[in-house]
Structure formats: structure tokens, C-alpha cells
Amino acid sequence: MRINKYISETGYCSRRETNRLIAAGRITINGKVCEKGADVEPEDIVLIDGEEIPFNDRDPVYLALNKPIGIVCTAAEQVEGNIIQYVNYPSRIFAIGRLDKASEGLIFLTNDGDIVNKMMRSEHNHDKEYVVTVDKPVTDEFVRAMSQGVEIMNVVTKPCEVYKYSENVFRIILTQGLNLQIRRMCKALGYRVLKLERIRIMNVTLEGLERGQWRHLEKQELENLLSMLN
Hints:
Elements: H1 3-10, H2 15-23, E1 27-29, E2 32-33, E3 46-48, E4 51-52, E5 62-67, H3 83-87, E6 94-96, E7 104-110, H4 113-121, E8 128-134, H5 140-148, E9 151-152, E10 155-156, E11 161-166, E12 169-174, H6 181-188, E13 193-201, E14 204-205, E15 214-216, H7 219-229
Parallel strand pairs: 7-13
Antiparallel strand pairs: 1-2, 1-3, 3-4, 5-7, 5-15, 6-7, 8-12, 8-13, 9-10, 11-12, 13-14
Helix pairs in contact: 1-2
């Protein structure tokens, strides 16, 4: 989405006023001074004068979706199967983070820019749990290597918890979110991911959510989630 439209939809100011703010160098995207006509992704951190943009004109929405395979975690309207059109919520929301198109499971959607910034600014060591099926038996050596950290994209992943679930299936709990991290880790160790499902983010699980369904976060789990982010 263009930066002008993004900011105007927050209710902060008009598109024309956004142009003035851009010209004055008062808007940043992910820490870099915004240029005219810049595009904004849902996970980007947009600040005005170094401050987060308030979303005070609408009631906060917090959704949990059990994302099916084939849905793309983008708000770009031209992308077929984008997550916003799939959920079809009656007001503007966006996904927090990503699950790649070939993966399934839990993802949050919201209109609360504050929680997005808190969750995306750094991983804050918050747990995300996955169940992964691979193309050959999970060995003790594989579990040990995955848990200690694997070199991908010229970095070594953080230590994590890995448990063998069955012959070709393991559970993994990550506290970071590198691009295609689990798939890249497995590939580096000679394995290919056949199925990847995220079953938990922090205190929220897939319990009660069929594939393709979404629900509002319950009051208590939302309060617990927000307290973990502070």
C-alpha cells in the first residue's frame, strides 16, 4: 500500500498532508527516511517524528486465523489469495508477521499498529511453535543440530527447542523469525520440508480453530498476550 493511503486510513492526516510530512523528512519506514511514493508492507514500522501512528478512530481488532496452504500473507490487493481478502473482515486489518504460502497454521491479524510494532520490532524472545514433517527419518543428530543452531543466510540461528514427534515429524519452538527459517535450516542439514504448521504463538494456540477459520482473541488471552509484550 502507498504510504499516503496507509497514513490517511489511520485517520492521522490526509494524503496531501502526508506529502508535506514526507517532504519535511518527518516520516520513517523501518528507520529510514520515507521517500515520496514509497510502499508500505503490513509488517513495516512507520513512525512520524519518531512516534508510532495512533489508530484511535476505530475499535481495536485482534484475530487468530488458522491459515490454509495457498493463502499469501500480504495486503496487496493485486495478489491472488491474499490473506486480507480471504478473511474478508468488515474493517481494515493486517497480518502480524508472515507464514509463507506453502505453510499453514496460526497467524494474527489486527488493526492495532502498536501491537504490530511491539511484535515485529524484534522477536523479544517470544515463543512460536511449529510441527514439521520432513522427507526422511528424524535422527538424534538432526535434533541436536537444529536445536544448537544452523548456519543459513550467513548467520547462525539462535538455539531453540526441538523434539522428535514421530519418525518423520518434529516439533520446534523458535524465538526468532528469519525468512523461511525452518525450511532453510532443514535444507542445510539435508532434509526437505513436506509440511509445516504453526500451532502456537506465545500463549495463543490453534485449539478450537479448524483450518481456514478465524476467531477474535478472548479477553483473558489478549490481556496475557499484551502483558507479555510490555
